[in-house]
Every structure is written in structure tokens, then in C-alpha cells.
Amino acid sequence: MSKNNPQPRVGIVTGAGRGIGLAIAKELSTQGVSIVAADNGCDIDGSQENHIIVEEAVKQLSGPSRIYTRSVASPKAAEELVAMAIGEFGGIDMIINCAAILRDGLIFKGTSEDWEIVIKNNLSSAFYLTRAATPMMRQQFKENRGSGEAYNWGRILNIGSTAGLYGNFGQANYGSAKAGLFGLMRITALEMARSNVTCNYIAPFAHSRVTDIIEPANDQQAEYKNRALKVSPSHVARFVSYLCSPAASDVTGQVFGVRGREVFLFSQPRPIETIVQMDQDWSIDEFTVAVDKTFKKKFTKLETDLEAFNTEPII
Ligand SMILES: NC(=O)c1ccc[n+]([C@@H]2O[C@H](COP(=O)([O-])OP(=O)(O)OC[C@H]3O[C@@H](n4cnc5c(N)ncnc54)[C@H](O)[C@@H]3O)[C@@H](O)[C@H]2O)c1
Asked: How do residues 87-109 score in pLDDT, each as one tens digit?
């Protein structure tokens, strides 16, 4: 709650039963946000639902909450979630798209079934929910929901991954879904700006059941796992809470990373060099010379976050 907007805000957090999603739900709850906590309690690969997980989780929240225990990966679920937020709490101010599963496999071994399930679960679910909620968010802006001052509370956050930005071995489906969440974020930010709804992307690093199951294949991965185990998801939640605060009403369209008390702003793909042939089409030889001379020194390295974030986290 805030003196600028006395009406309690309402947030839908997917994946709120565990890990980073639960940390975010707890943090927003302490900030006075009424929470719709959506989590079907599935295993890491999306199988085996367990509704007790989210029922138990919301006991840790300090404010009002409702739970949604079915999978969020369908248009119907998205509509039900939005109806729940509006019916129970009167509006919808924040969406945190955090639910995700993993079905890893190298590109030459991955199955179509795993691809489709992961894309639907980790990317389409965010689209369904954003599509279902944004009409209400636009309407709230038009009606100045809250104190009567200009409404600027709308927040959408896509919890992504460095796997979608750098790539990662064995994560074609997961990384592609997370890269898709980047595009979805940019387009949502553009389209919702006129309704004062922000949309951002966070690549988190935090200890959760996902980091617990990493089986290091070499010393570098073992070090990575040890570092990851030290980092509480509460740090991600603190930054989410900032992004959802009035202070961040002009922060939109950005890609952040959070690892402990380090917060990173990522660059976004833009042309960084140009080669041009003014009067005739390029020949292969001309391309070879120009690419070698102008592009190669600026190529993006083939590295993963293992190499890019190989320092001790600050916790
Ligand atoms: N932990 C990390 O270091 C890390 C790194 C990169 C990205 N992430 C991302 O952060 C987010 C949270 O990850 P985490 O590590 O806390 O994972 P987690 O497995 O602990 O939590 C994910 C939650 O989402 C729920 N969920 C998954 N699919 C669902 C569905 N269809 N419907 C309802 N609930 C569903 C699961 O039941 C689980 O409780 C994910 O988007 C993940 O990809 C985490």
C-alpha cells in the first residue's frame, strides 16, 4: 500500500509454491500486495502434480492470498487466474511469470514431445496470462484505479534465464522458451507503455531444487553448483519488489540479472557494426574480407553463464 494509491494492489505469481516464485510471493505480500499464488506442485519435468505444495507455501505469506492449483499452461487457466484475482481482490496490478519446468536433452537427441511441453509450459503460459490480464490492466489505467491519481501500478515480469540469453548445453527447449520470454517482454513493454504498465525480464541465479539436481560433469560445473547453492532466492524477490514499487514506474523493457546482492543490467541485441556495398551486390569474396575485417573482432563468444559469471557471488 502507498499514500499515492491506498487501494491494496493485487499480484498473480505463477510458480509461487517453491523456490524463486515463493520468495517473490512472500516479499510482495510483506509489501501489502494481495497474492494469487498459482502452482500445481509438479516435478521438475512437469509430471506428478502435488497441490499440497502451494497450500503449505501460502501459509508463509503475511497478507491475503488465494491459491490456484491447476497447471497455468493453458488459455483457460489464464482466464481462471485473472477471474480469481478480480473476483477475490477486485483487480490485477502485477503478473509475475515464474513457473517453469526442465526437460533437458542435447539438440541431436531432443524429442518433439519435450520441445512442445516445455515451450507451452514456460513460454506460452506467460503469453496466455499476459493476454488474459492486460485488458483489465488497460481498463484500470483508464479508470485511474486507486487514489484517483494517474494509475501507474501495472507491472509484468518475465522470469527468464541466462540459458535464453547465452544458451546452454542440453537446453534447446528451455533456452528457446526463455529467449521467447525476452521477445514477449519487449513487445508487452511497447504495447502497454501507454497504460503505464511496465514489463521487464529477470535472469535469476538462486538456490532452488533446480540447482540441487545439477550433476557436475567437471570441476568448473562443480564450482558453479557450489556457488549457486549459497545464493538465496530472496535476493531476486527484493529486486522484484523494487520493480513493483512506485520508484520503478519508468523502468520498462529491460533485461536484468540478479545473483545475490549483485544486480546486472544486460545489453540487448542491436546492430554494433555495419558493412555495406553501395553500388553492386556482394560477392562471397567481398563478404569474406569485410566480415573478417569489421565483424569478427566483435563476434559474441560461444560461452555460457558458467564462464560469464564465474566469480564468487556476493551474498
Ligand atoms: N534457480 C535458478 O538459479 C534459476 C536460474 C535461471 C532461471 N530460473 C527460473 O526461475 C524460475 C523459478 O525457478 P526455481 O529455481 O525457483 O524453480 P522451482 O522448480 O523450484 O519452482 C518452479 C515452480 O513452478 C511450478 N510450475 C511449473 N510449471 C507449472 C505449471 N504449468 N503450472 C503451475 N505451476 C507450475 C512448479 O511446481 C514449481 O513449484 C523459473 O522460471 C526458472 O526457469 C531459475
From this structure: 999 999 999 999 999 999 999 99
**Contact call for residues 72 and 125 (beta carbons, < 8 A):** yes
Q: Is 74 exposed, middle or buried (0-12, 13-18, 19+ CB in 10 A)?
A: middle
List all residues 6 or more positions away from 130 whose beta carbon is below 8 Å from its beta carbon: 95, 97, 156, 184, 188
Q: Using a 6 Å cutoff on CB, does residue 73 contact ligand 1?
A: yes
The Cα 258–Cα 313 span in angstroms is 10
Q: Can you list the domains of the chain with their CATH numbers?
A: 10-268 (3.40.50.720)
Give CA 104 to chain center in angstroms. 19
pTM for this prediction: 0.96
15-58 pLDDT, tens digit each: 999 999 999 999 999 999 999 999 999 999 999 999 999 999 99
Best of 13, 39, 104, 129 for a ligand 1 pocket test (most atoms within 8 Å of beta carbon) = 39
Q: Is 121 in the pocket of ligand 1 (CB under 6 A)?
A: yes
Phi first, then psi: give them for residue 195, nearest 5 degrees. -105, 15
